[in-house]
Each structure stands twice: as C-alpha cells, then as structure tokens.
Amino acid sequence: MAKVYEFLANGFEEVEALAPVDILRRGGVEVKTVSITGSPLVESSHGVMVKADLQIEDLGVIDDADMLLIPGGMPGAANLNLHEGLRKLLVEQNEKGKRLGAICAAPMVLGSVGVLRGKHATCYPGFEKRLTGAEYTGELCTIDGNITTGKGPA
C-alpha cells in the first residue's frame, strides 16, 4: 500500500490539507499527518484545531514514504519553510527520487530548498518568484518528474 506523510504547521489551509487526506485514504493510500509545531495539535488559518497522527520529532528516518505532501495557507506555508527538520526531509526525499507534493503557497518551500531547479511548477498567484529555479506554468496542477505542485485546492 502506498504511504504519504502530510506535514502540518500552524496556519495551514483546511481544504488543502484535509481534502487530500480524505481523498487519498478513500483511495486506499495510507496517509499520516505530521505536526511540526512541537505538539500534536495544529491550528489552521481559520482557527480549526486538528490533531495530527504524528509529530515530526517522532519520525526519525523516513524510508517508507511514497510521497511527502505539504499544504498551503498562510502563514502555514511560511511556517513549514522555517522548519529545518522538514526542509531536510524534503531534500532527502527528492534525492531518493521519491515524490513530493505542494499545494498553493507551499511550492515556495520546495523552491527554497532547491528541489525545483530545472523543473516546471505552479503555485498560488503572487508566489511565482518564490519558486527558485523553476519555470512557472500557471497551470492548476503541474507534474514534473517526482514533483507535483498545485495552484490551489482545485
């Protein structure tokens, strides 16, 4: 069975985080939500509290992930970008050639860690300059190799 880890930071966008979890689980994919807040509880951009399945401190090495997924929302995406442990995991996943996914503002994190160099990518309008090294497509969804980026929850 495929396995996805989705990372949550305070300020995440509810639809971008929870709809993929719901859809993937319905499709038979094992999804684990991971808090980077130091607590299992993560607050969305609209004040909804969500209890994550795991905390990033408890993960260790991730060898079983088919995909690492990061949702957008502000300041959630900015908070994801500040977490050095997550940044390291994203780079390691990319170096293994395994899938990365980022929605809305979150592709800026992939740009920041350097994994978008030479790739096509999309993001929420206004974040294009944060896709360091990527060619911006403006598409609703862009897949380039092991990296999938989404303009928004659509």
Note down, in words, how this protein is organized.
With 154 residues, the chain is α/β, with parallel strands linked by helices. It has helices at 14-26, 76-82, 84-95, 107-112, and strands at 3-8, 30-35, 41-43, 49-51, 54-55, 67-70, 99-103, 120-121, 135-136, 141-144, 147-150. The strands form three sheets. Strands 5-2-1-6-7-11-10 form a seven-stranded mixed sheet, with helices on both faces. The two termini are 25 Å apart.
Task: Present the secondary structure layout.
Blueprint: E1 3-8, H1 14-26, E2 30-35, E3 41-43, E4 49-51, E5 54-55, E6 67-70, H2 76-82, H3 84-95, E7 99-103, H4 107-112, E8 120-121, E9 135-136, E10 141-144, E11 147-150
Parallel strand pairs: 1-2, 1-6, 2-5, 6-7, 7-11, 8-9
Antiparallel strand pairs: 3-4, 10-11
